[in-house]
Amino acid sequence: MAIIDGKAVSKAVRERVAKETAELKEKGIVPGLAVIIVGEDPASQVYVRNKEKACEEVGFYSEKFALPESTTQEELNALVKALNARKDINGILCQLPLPKHLDDKEVINLIDPAKDVDAFHPVNVGTIMIGDYNFLPCTPAGVMELIHSTGVDVCGKKAVVIGRSNIVGKPMAMLLLHENATVEITHSRTQNLADITKEADILVAAIGKAKFVTADMLKDGAVVIDVGMNRDENGKLCGDVDFEAVKDKCSFITPVPGGVGPMTISMLMQNTLTAAKIQNGING
Ligand code: GUN
Description:
By secondary structure, the chain is an alpha/beta fold. It is built from 10 helices and 11 strands. The two termini are 36 Å apart. It binds guanine. Guanine (GUN) binds next to β4.
């Protein structure tokens, strides 16, 4: 069994982005990311701080818009429209979840698809389905980088995704399909789940249940990618996979923390760089 080092793969992506950013700067282009956060959700504040830090690390311009909980839909919409029009902002990200009185769908639909570095806009979701995309949603894109880092060829393999969210499960299945895996999406209503997961050469767990995947659900030598971020019975951070119980059965496995987590922001940096290049007429 080998542990996939998400921190190392993530660092390599950021170094690549930083190098390209330095080259763009010589042409007078500085990629710019606007991050909107509404309210005081502590987890969101940590994510946003980490996104800003990453921007600084790779050499981007970043601007944070921390709006009060009392912000109205009209105010939020007006900000997105203003950012759509700004030449120095190439990427716009509205941190989710939004406070209950605000409609995240309305905000996502307003973001210019060319600046939608989360790839949540229906136009970008559609391009992913077709396989003709500029941006990939950050978490599934990060998972693909991790799978590539193992050297395992996805082509022809049986891949099983547990979870069907718009942000992870569904696009994850598409990306695996684009690389010619035979893909099955499973979820909370799937019957005889273990019979399906036991056939997986590649298993991606994104169901949001602590230590849900156990050794008896795995094929020997499977590649296991754990997208989960949960707390166990002792309050300790853990994934959707029971790491200790399954690790000797896998060929490769991602830990939690230190697996998929670090990749997500690196892929956001990659998307922002791509957005800046395209908006400046440079091929992404
Ligand atoms: N909240 C949790 N994950 C994400 C993400 O990837 N993008 C945004 N905008 N909000 C999130």
